[in-house]
């Protein structure tokens, strides 16, 4: 049962009221609308309507035990979805909302179990994007929105990625152009004795800790390369973001990485394989491969985050058999970038000097 997906271009600096009213009405009627946020595109539905949550899981092909993030436009809505609002949530909202931070709190009865994947807690975020905020306000709803990709594919950073995955399955896509950040929001769990980061993102543990005035820990389950420790966020346990080709990360000094990758590429090509290298502006001309994809300058970590998912999608489109990637342990958001890259590579890393 495919439907006709309307794709509407919306300029974030000059929002078209007519389009937004229609999009808001669709959400209020229980339909799904994909929309831009500052992190990645989201697939929105009425967060307080169990049927909308079920539609979201079906459209994404996502397991229904993986909870959705509830997007709000006003802090007072936190009081509707949370059983009680912790002091820490007020502090963090003051510092980072609207913005790329999701907070986990105990849920109120208003939030259906269909939205939280059966959990007693709820994830809440106020996105920093005029189209997202306007859609929430115009719909008169709170909007449940996972990333707007098919389950298992890289998150969408442009409307065309959403269309690739979800055309025919949702009512509308709002195209607000490429997103600003490119990786999903940081998730902090405020229901434990110590605040805990469940998913690293643009807002770092150091930034959170500074605002809270206490230590912020990182879920050990997201750092482990094996599956001996389960991540607390259900979504972090799935093999996400995986390109179709085998991917290997090569780590070490720049010169060592270049010569090792070139040797590995040569070996694959001898066996008739098509090979891609994920490089930087500084190193791209040093590689010999079928495809060389640049994440941008190594000195610009924001650009690296912005390009990551688009590049993983390109690898799929180009039908390469193998991908070798440089490592991106950059100073501030390197942890968030490497979390996604390591998952894409199934934690296969070669270290060289
Ligand atoms: O940047 C973002 O957060 C984007 C945009 C659209 O806002 N959304 C997003 O949603 O990344 P999604 O569904 O792709 O990822 C949500 C993550 C999943 O790993 C899920 O398991 C976790 O949040 N999560 C949601 N509710 C949770 C809860 N109550 N407890 C623990 N983890 C939760
Ligand atoms: Mg996702």
Automatic annotation (TrEMBL):
Organism superkingdom: Bacteria
UniProt binding sites for ATP: 62, 66, 147, 155, 199, 241
Keywords of this entry: ATP-binding, Cytoplasm, Nucleotide-binding, Nucleotidyltransferase, Transferase, tRNA processing
Catalytic function, reaction form: L-threonine + hydrogencarbonate + ATP = L-threonylcarbamoyladenylate + diphosphate + H2O
Function: Required for the formation of a threonylcarbamoyl group on adenosine at position 37 (t(6)A37) in tRNAs that read codons beginning with adenine.
GO molecular function terms attached to this record: ATP binding; double-stranded RNA binding; L-threonylcarbamoyladenylate synthase; tRNA binding
Gene source species: Roseburia faecis
One biological process term in Gene Ontology: regulation of translational fidelity
Protein name as annotated: Threonylcarbamoyl-AMP synthase
